[in-house]
Amino acid sequence: MNKKHLPYIILFAVLLLGAAGLFSTRFDLTKEKRYTLSDSSVKVLKAVKKPLTIEVYLEGDFPANFKQLRNEAKFMLEEFRKINPKIDYKFIDPLKTKMSQDTLVAMGMQPSKLSDMKDGKISEIIIFPYAVLKYDGYGSSHSLISQQTGSDLDQQINRSIESLEYNLVSNIKSITQEHKKSIGILVNQEELRPDEFRGFVNMALENYNVGPVIPTTTGELTLPDIPKLKKFDALVIAKPRKPFTDGEKVILDQYIMNGGKTLWMIDAVNAEMDTLNVSENKKIMAYPIDNNLTDFFFNFGLRINPALVKDVQKFALLRLVTGEVQGNPQFTSLPWPYFPLGIAESKNPVTNNINPVKFEFPTSIDTLGRPGIKTNVLYESSKKTLLKQVPNYVDLKEIASVDSLGQNEKPTTPKIFAVSLEGKFSSGYAARSERNTFPNFKPESENNKMIVIADGDVGRNKVLKGEPLPLGFDLLTNQQFGNEQFLKNALDYLLDDSNLMELRNRNIEARLLDRQRINEEKAQWQWLNLLLPLAIIGFLGALFFWLRKRRFSK
């Protein structure tokens, strides 16, 4: 064999083996590395120890943008299977398999209705863009569509593709992990009632173990409660009304120093919409609430101000009776500046790509800064913000003059509603005598996290006829706010030891085709795709024949 032919033989063998599928190598040349799984994802996938099946209900005849989502999901699941052969997947067409809509709804899947135009006719398509995970006798369904108010379908599909890796991998981690992390809910400070906090608890139970933290003696947290607190990886304090004692603050301080994560939802002002609605003159007196936490948060570089924030640019609507026609009340949705909306304006994994979050009578947070602690603003008001000092009246008549200044109000800069803290926390009692009351006192934590929200109602669901409504759902305006997703992301951020949350900041540029040009040039591109391969094969065949004739004609 002539040695000069050896490279050509090797190249031919490589191409032949690749065509046979004996091996394959993919090169991700995209700018955002959209086809490369993160190290965190790979770690989670490799940890799957038993067979896992993922059923994706994205098979069938539906619009092109959903086909794009299907193709992205299929590619990603194929990568999952390559990393861990225990992971398998299949795509299901519920119409072809004749699955009833009631069966799909019972599995936790809600239908999406789309209008599709084909051959000049408009038809309605019902699809179920969900993935069902089955592992070790358990199953769970998860939507593949990222819902966000104000986004068109193409934007939602693009955001869904951006979130695809996080959604799939985080749900795989949730269903396959042997030991779920635990969340404690403090029940001692006159917090939200169980029916008002049911939406939050149900959401948390999807991925974590959840239990109450009830003091064993004297009605306050004491040293005998420390073993109970150590069982929980995170502690949730939702709208406390009773002041914390100095002893309780030491215990909470040491819980944090020993690695406990905390999620605080704090009201610094008493102002309730329920009270305002039932008052005779539609007016209530708002007054400050002393939770005895000023020095506690000051140690971590935060100060919660006892003054109501009115946002006259980003606000929720309040539905009120504004008239009557033949005995029938007439409702109108009007702007209510005391219910500002949290709209993410920075790429933070906790707040990215979710519906606006509804705050009710929030106050504001000042960030003071502390060495070794990184502070991130999660939500803040707009530039058109007013500040109402308390005690002061909140009058429903203010709805008629949103931009007007009331008594003790003045224009301010944007105010912070929620922050996250991350870093090494120092104890506020390291140089105080209270440290002597705590055994094995720890003056500083390892790297830790905390989230503080200046609104106790952000995690409260409404109750209708004794039944809790979904968290973030406004029955009067029939609008779903992003409160549940925000708090779910907050818990995931606090308890994420795999760094999966960073995937929520993934940005994939939508490179959309020009639909008008497609329609105009459709025929010529079809002929080009049909004839060009035949022309190339014909040219190569003629070249091979010419070379062979030239070589052997001598």
TrEMBL record:
<dbReference type="Pfam" id="PF09822">
    <property type="entry name" value="ABC_transp_aux"/>
</dbReference>
<feature type="domain" description="ABC-type uncharacterised transport system">
    <location>
        <begin position="180"/>
        <end position="490"/>
    </location>
</feature>
<protein>
    <submittedName>
        <fullName>Gliding-associated putative ABC transporter substrate-binding component GldG</fullName>
    </submittedName>
</protein>
<dbReference type="InterPro" id="IPR055396">
    <property type="entry name" value="DUF7088"/>
</dbReference>
<keyword id="KW-0812">Transmembrane</keyword>
<keyword id="KW-0472">Membrane</keyword>
<feature type="transmembrane region" description="Helical">
    <location>
        <begin position="525"/>
        <end position="547"/>
    </location>
</feature>
<dbReference type="InterPro" id="IPR019863">
    <property type="entry name" value="Motility-assoc_ABC-rel_GldG"/>
</dbReference>
<feature type="domain" description="DUF7088">
    <location>
        <begin position="31"/>
        <end position="133"/>
    </location>
</feature>
<dbReference type="Pfam" id="PF23357">
    <property type="entry name" value="DUF7088"/>
</dbReference>
<keyword id="KW-1133">Transmembrane helix</keyword>
<dbReference type="InterPro" id="IPR019196">
    <property type="entry name" value="ABC_transp_unknown"/>
</dbReference>
